[in-house]
């Protein structure tokens, strides 16, 4: 059985280089944001089959661990850092913020309906909140564990059901996934590959696909009161390995002081105020 854990320092060096490359692919020095098709398009007869093919890997994920390199902007604050992430369907999540030395910058452990965020260095804790609210205060991306896993692995939304598809100009196609979500695809080597997506309040871009999963993901808010643009470099992926149940719970040390979501939002460990 594999226990969710932070990788050895020698592995971090390699994964950090990979992460930097992936972030660069979606950073300001890379090509501008994807311009999605605006035309109505023509019917795509094989939309259901195409989605089944391009989402086969992410739909088959039971557990998922990876190192995430974060870089971006939330309102007037920069967000930057590295996170070791672990997910188990249907709704468990563990995020460890990697610090240069010593204990993690933060640990977020979540199960369906409950989440705890511990800041070991500050001896502060957020309790009795759902994971969506805690993740939003921490990163600016208020998604549930299931939604975040779907966004990071290319499924866009959990349990998507492909519906109507359209063929657009300039080699684009789109597939309705239900719940207000749409996947946009382009031809790569004669095969369709997801390139972007829309879901309520968010736009997503995908790049650097390997073995059926994206290594570079960009999330942008759409219509949110606080603008968010976050690039995520995904490396050191392991899928469908056993994760011990204890990974998704936290023992909070006695004397740890309470922290509110607003305090976390204003001065969280990933925020760099200008």
Please describe the biggest sheet, giving its number of strands, its sense, and whether it closes into a barrel.
Answer: 16 strands, mixed
Number of helices: 6
Main structural class:
alpha+beta
Question: What is the residue-averaged pLDDT?
Answer: 87
**End-to-end separation:** 44 Å
- How many structural domains can be distinguished in the coordinates? 1
Number of strands: 16
CATH architecture: Clam
Question: In CATH, what is the homologous superfamily?
Answer: Lipoprotein localisation LolA/LolB/LppX
- Assign the CATH topology: outer membrane lipoprotein receptor (LolB), chain A
Strand content: 35-45%
Tell me about this structure.
- The protein is globular.
- The protein is α+β, with helices and mostly antiparallel strands and 274 residues long.
- It has helices at 9-25, 47-54, 56-59, 131-139, 145-153, 261-267; strands spanning 42-43, 63-74, 77-88, 92-97, 106-111, 114-119, 124-129, 165-167, 172-178, 181-188, 191-199, 202-210, 213-221, 228-239, 257-258, 271-273.
- It has one domain (9-264): outer membrane lipoprotein receptor (LolB), chain A (Clam).
- Residues 6-31 have low confidence and may be disordered.
């Amino acid at each position: 059985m594999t226990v969710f854990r932070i990788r050895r320092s020698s592995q971090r060096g390699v994964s950090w280089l990979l992460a930097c490359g992936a972030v660069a692919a979606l950073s300001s020095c890379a090509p501008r944001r994807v311009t999605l098709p605006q035309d109505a398009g023509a019917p795509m007869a094989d939309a259901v089959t195409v989605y089944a093919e391009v989402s086969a890997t992410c739909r088959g994920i039971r557990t998922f661990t990876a190192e995430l390199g974060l870089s971006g902007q939330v309102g007037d604050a920069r967000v930057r850092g590295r996170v070791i992430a672990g997910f188990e369907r249907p709704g468990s999540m563990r995020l460890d913020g990697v610090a240069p030395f010593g204990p993690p910058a933060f640990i977020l452990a979540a199960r369906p309906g409950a989440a705890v965020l511990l800041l070991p260095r500050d001896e502060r804790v957020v309790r009795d909140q759902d994971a969506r609210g805690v993740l939003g205060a921490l990163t600016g991306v208020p998604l549930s564990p299931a939604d975040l896993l779907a966004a990071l692995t290319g499924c866009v939304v959990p349990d998507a059901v492909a519906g109507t598809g359209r063929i657009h100009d300039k080699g684009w196609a789109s597939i309705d996934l239900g719940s207000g979500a749409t996947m946009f695809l382009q031809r790569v080597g004669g095969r369709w590959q997801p390139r972007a997506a829309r879901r309520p309040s968010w736009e997503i871009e995908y790049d650097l696909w390997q073995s059926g999963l994206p290594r570079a993901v960009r999330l942008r808010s759409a219509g949110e009161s606080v603008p968010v643009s976050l690039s995520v470099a995904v490396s050191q992926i392991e899928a469908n390995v056993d994760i011990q149940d204890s990974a998704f719970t936290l023992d909070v040390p006695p004397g740890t002081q309470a922290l509110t979501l607003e305090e976390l939002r204003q001065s969280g460990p990933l925020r760099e105020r200008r």
